[in-house]
Design brief:
Helix content: under 10%
Distance between the termini: 37 Å
Number of helices: 0
Strand order of the largest sheet: 3-4-5-6
Structural class: mainly beta
Length: 258
C-alpha cells in the first residue's frame, strides 16, 4: 500500500488524488496544511528506496507536496528498529515538527530511554533534521499528535506507562501524557493525566487564549472516576481536557455510553 492523498471540493467530489512511497509499503497517519498552500504528511515506510531509510524495518515517513499534490520531497527517519510517525505540523519559522514512537537507538535516534519512546523531531522546510528528542522512561511511551505553539515551540499528546526518565507521576496503567517543548526542543513541562486503567491523548491544539485542548479516551474498568477522570459513563469514554498554559487541568469532560 501507498500513502494516498485526496483533494475534494466542498461537495466531496475529487479534485485530484496522488499516491506516494517506494517499492514496498507505506501508510499515512497525519496531514497538515502548510503556509505555501501545500501539505505535509507523516506516517511510516518499509521501502528501502526512500531517501534516508534505515535497514529493512519501518521508518517514519514524511512527504511534502504542493497545492496540487505533486511531491516536492520525501524522506525516512529513524533507526534499525520499527519506528512510526503519528503527528506532524508546521511551526512558526516555516519548518516542521513530527512525533511518533521509536524502538530504535541508532541512526537518527539518540537518547533512547527504554522499550518504546516518544520521538520529537524538528525539520527544516526541506526536511533536514534540526534537532531530535526522545522522551519517556523505562517502559512504553508513545506520541500521537503534535501542535505548533505561538512561542515557536510545540506541544505533544500521547500515552505513557513510565514513572521515571522524563516522567514524574503515573496514575495507574497507561496515562494520557502531554509534553511542552521550546523552539529548541527543550522540555518546558510535562504532565500525566488519567486514572487506574488506560488513558491516551490522540489530538492536541493550542487555543487562542494560550491554553490547550486535548482529546483522547479514558478506560475506567474497576474504579470509575479515579484519578483525574470525572463523569465516566462506563468502560471506555471519549475524554476532552482543557489545560492551562502550565499544564494544570482547567476542566475535563467524558463523553459516551455504557
Amino acid at each position: 500500500g501507498k500513502v494516498w492523498l485526496i483533494k475534494m471540493d466542498r461537495t466531496g467530489a475529487i479534485v485530484w488524488q496522488q499516491s506516494y512511497g517506494g517499492f514496498k509499503s507505506e501508510e499515512g497517519n497525519a496531514l497538515a496544511a502548510t503556509s505555501d498552500g501545500g501539505y505535509i504528511i507523516c506516517g511510516s515506510t518499509s521501502s528501502t528506496d526512500v531517501p534516508g531509510m534505515h535497514g529493512i524495518q519501518l521508518d517514519i515517513y514524511v512527504v511534502k507536496v504542493d497545492s496540487v499534490g505533486k511531491m516536492e520531497w520525501h524522506k525516512a527517519y529513524g533507526g534499525a528498529q520499527p519506528d512510526q510517525g503519528f503527528g506532524i505540523c508546521q511551526v512558526t519559522d516555516g519548518g516542521y515538527v513530527f512525533t511518533g514512537r521509536v524502538y530504535s537507538n541508532d541512526g537518527d535516534v539518540s537518547g533512547f530511554k527504554g522499550v518504546v519512546d516518544v520521538w520529537a523531531v524538528k525539520l527544516t522546510s526541506t526536511g533536514n533534521i534540526t534537532w531530535q528528542k526522545t522522551l519517556g522512561g523505562s517502559t512504553t511511551d508513545q506520541g500521537f499528535d503534535i501542535a505548533a505553539t505561538a512561542d515557536g515551540g510545540c506541544v505533544i499528546s500521547g500515552q505513557s506507562q513510565s514513572t521515571d526518565g522524563d516522567l514524574t507521576k503515573n496514575n495507574g496503567g497507561r496515562d494520557l501524557w502531554v509534553v511542552k517543548l521550546t523552539s529548541a526542543g527543550i522540555k518546558s513541562w510535562q504532565r500525566s493525566y488519567g486514572g487506574e486503567a488506560m488513558d491516551v491523548g490522540l489530538k492536541i491544539l493550542e487555543t487562542k487564549d494560550g491554553e490547550y485542548l486535548v482529546a483522547g479516551c479514558n478506560a475506567q474498568y474497576t474504579k470509575p472516576n479515579s484519578g483525574d477522570v470525572t463523569g465516566n459513563n462506563g468502560s471506555s469514554d471519549a475524554w476532552v481536557l482543557k489545560l492551562r498554559a502550565n499544564g494544570t487541568i482547567l476542566w475535563n469532560k467524558t463523553y459516551g455510553g455504557s
